[in-house]
Write a structure and sequence with these properties.
There is one protein chain. By secondary structure, the protein is of the alpha/beta class. The chain has one domain: Rossmann fold, CATH 3.40.50. Helix content is 24%, strand content 28%. It contains six helices and eight strands. The protein has an eight-stranded mixed beta sheet with strand order 3-2-1-4-5-8-6-7. It is globular and about 50 Å long. The protein starts with a helix and ends in a 6-residue tail after the last strand. 36% of the residues are buried.
Length: 191
């Protein structure tokens, strides 16, 4: 999945909010900041040799991976410069885009799923445009960037409101569900 996103959009630097012990973005993306409060994630990333061995097992030629772990709450300011990442990853983490969009460069990407509502919030936010859909079938990920108009059609209009999504912590059920969605944040006028 991350290789497809990297290949399509040239992603070089990512922020993974609520990463837990998932270093998979580093298999394709050169520099990744991982953020989580869980002590197990902190212990996992503290063993840099083990993480590198895991990445090396995936791709023996992957020597340039840079990863940093932040034991932090992504809802609070992070030690990451604003507008410095190409990709914000929010999988099963809650509304990370509400709190971390400041770190996205203009035109940067959000990869999110509907599990805790982040993809649904992005779908309602005029600052984000859907540019890709991640599918998952038979253990394989796919990336589709065409025919996207059919992907964010709610199965019901009930609960299709940003406040309701935040209050429930659950995303909208769409008529055509995907594993995750890729959104591009707008470039401010004049840039």
């Amino acid at each position: 999945m991350f290789d497809a996103v990297h290949q399509m959009w040239g992603v070089d630097r990512a922020l993974y909010a609520g990463s837990y012990v998932d270093a998979s973005p580093s298999t394709a993306i050169r520099s990744v900041d991982y953020v989580d409060l869980d002590r197990r994630a902190e212990r996992y990333f503290a063993d840099a040799d083990a993480v590198r061995a895991e990445l090396h097992a995936h791709d023996p030629h992957r020597e340039d991976a840079v990863f940093r772990f932040h034991r932090a709450d992504y809802r609070e300011p992070l030690d990451i410069p604003d507008a410095s990442v190409d990709l914000l990853i929010s999988l099963y983490a809650g509304p990370a885009s509400d709190h971390c969009r400041r770190y996205l460069r203009p035109g940067g990407l959000l990869l999110a799923n509907t599990s805790h509502g982040d993809a649904s919030l992005a779908a309602l936010d005029p600052a984000f445009d859907l540019v890709g859909v991640i599918t998952h079938r038979d253990g394989r990920y796919g990336l589709r960037t065409t025919d996207l108009a059919k992907d964010l059609v709610p199965a019901s209009r009930v609960g299709v409101d940003a406040d309701a999504i935040r209050a429930s912590g659950r995303g909208v059920r769409y008529t055509r569900m995907a594993f995750a969605y890729v959104f591009r944040i707008a470039v401010p006028a004049g840039q």
